[in-house]
Amino acid sequence: QQQVKQSPQSLIVQKGGISIINCAYENTAFDYFPWYQQFPGKGPALLIAIRPDVSEKKEGRFTISFNKSAKQFSLHIMDSQPGDSATYFCAAGDSNYQLIWGAGTKLIIKP
Amino acid sequence: SQTIHQWPATLVQPVGSPLSLECTVEGTSNPNLYWYRQAAGRGLQLLFYSVGIGQISSEVPQNLSASRPQDRQFILSSKKLLLSDSGFYLCAWSVSGAYYGYTFGSGTRLTVV
Q1: Nearest Cα to B75, choosing from B87, B67, B83?
Q2: What is the C-alpha separation between B43 and B36, in angstroms, rounded?
Q3: pLDDT of A33-81, one tens digit each?
Q4: I need a labelling partner for B88 at 20 to 30 A (CA). Which of B13, B15, B23, B29 fits?
Q5: Nearest residue to A102 (alpha-carbon basis) of A45, A22, A48
């Protein structure tokens, strides 16, 4: 019940296209859902986060869509650029303020 | 502002040798501190976390140990490294009692040979 399932494992998108990464969870007590971006050889960095009281949050080209009833949330990257090529991790925050991580998605944007 | 420092950036150690990786946080007090390991092309595995000095929780039984001798210092150690200890080690911190400021260090690439 503490798992966060992330898909796909890898994703190739053409430059200018929309990249979509999905995550699903079981524990309805989760109340914080961040996305982290990791470039090779670097630590992950917070990209965008959402609370379950809103269905969507947008920051520039990055949008989180949240479906509380389905217990799913997704990251959309609009107008994907080669510089967006990275590994993306979703996570969910539990009542102990711990983050439960998805397995990661390696995104490659083809020029 | 808060910063997290982790060193060394890379390390090559022989099998059976000891290990000590250090992480320090500046600009905050009483942070939650975390050690993660990331195998090549894989996800984030939480190894240890600490909510205060001397308070260490272990998530995965293994050849490693952690200590928190000071409020903003977190150390990952091993007495004898195994080949399987190779990986990318990440330290992170967060604000006590919140998700905010969950920030990673730049990582240490450990290769055990």
Answers
A1: B67
A2: 10
A3: 999 999 999 999 999 999 999 999 999 999 999 999 999 999 999 999 9
A4: B29
A5: A22
